[in-house]
Amino acid sequence: MDQPTVRSVLPARTRDDLAALGPSVAALAGGSGIFAEPHPHLTGLVDLHALGWESLVVTDEGLEIAATCTIAEVAGIPPRDSWAAHPLFLQACTALFGSTKIWRVATVGGNICSALPAGPMTALASALDAEALIWRAATVDEPAHDERMPVAELVTGDRTTALLPGDVLRSIHVPAASLRSRTAFRKIALSPIGRSGSVVIGRLDEGGAFTLTVTGATLRPELLRYPTLPAAGVLAGTWERSDPGSPTRTAPPTGAVP
């Protein structure tokens, strides 16, 4: 979709170029979100691709995923012997409201910052306890600086985040311990690849701790943590559903997650 109010597109080659961002100037990564609907308040875009961020960086500490990494690149992450959670990368991508053509354009950062309840990269990152690296913009009170926070806390509601005008999501970091964890993925959707009504991801850490992450049927990621693997009845009894379309409290529409 054309954005007739946009008059300029600035390729950002250094962090200083991001100073152009503001209420009427947005960061541009893949563009699948910006060009999907009208944004009459926008007069300019700042293209992040010129910064040349490496999409995927593997270290002993885990996996660094750049905000400009495409969903197709996430789906194609090669397996590693120690990464028991590897299947989750492709599984999460299938929860996207969009075809595989969109995968080649849409980015991890754009999907998370859009803060849609059914954001698959939000689900993936939250389930793996990924940490977001945010480039905070300078304000009258403090200079530009870096800040880290869990992705599950970065998304605060339906299309709302902890980002302020001028802030940029630089990358997300997936800890090595999460990559070694066993995971289970379940979703409810009208098609194998498409917008999910509910996405449920279970993660069993090496030490026995269990985390259940629910997205899609919630306004923001909901994480339930247990010191050991809980029985199904325990999960059903502690869940409070926060459905964007209904305030009704009920058990999650998930079935069993082995």
- Beta-strand proportion: 25-35%
Structural Rg: 18 Å
Strand order of the largest sheet: 4-5-10-6-7
Mean pLDDT: 89
Q: Give the termini distance in whole angstroms.
A: 43 Å
- Poorly predicted ranges: 241-258
Structural class: alpha+beta
- What fold name goes in the CATH topology slot of the largest domain? Uridine Diphospho-n-acetylenolpyruvylglucosamine Reductase, domain 3
The appropriate CATH architecture of the largest domain is 2-Layer Sandwich
Specify the helix fraction band.
10-25%
Q: How do the SSEs run, as a string of H and E?
A: EEEEEHHHHHEEHEEEHEEEEH
Q: What characteristic shape results from the CA principal axes?
A: globular
Organism: Clavibacter michiganensis subsp. michiganensis
Protein name: FAD binding domain in molybdopterin dehydrogenase
Region (Disordered): 237-258
Domain FAD-binding PCMH-type: 1-179
Describe this structure in words.
The protein is of the alpha+beta class and 258 residues long. The chain has 2 domains: 8-51, no CATH class; 56-238, Uridine Diphospho-n-acetylenolpyruvylglucosamine Reductase, domain 3. The chain is built from 8 helices and 14 strands. The strands form 4 sheets. The protein has a 5-stranded antiparallel beta sheet with strand order 4-5-10-6-7. A 4-stranded antiparallel beta sheet has the order 11-12-13-14, with helices on one face. A 3-stranded parallel beta sheet has the order 1-3-2, with no helix packed on it. Strand 13 and strand 14 (222-226) form a beta hairpin. Helix 2 packs antiparallel against helix 5. It is globular and about 55 Å long. Mean pLDDT is 89; it is low at 241-258.
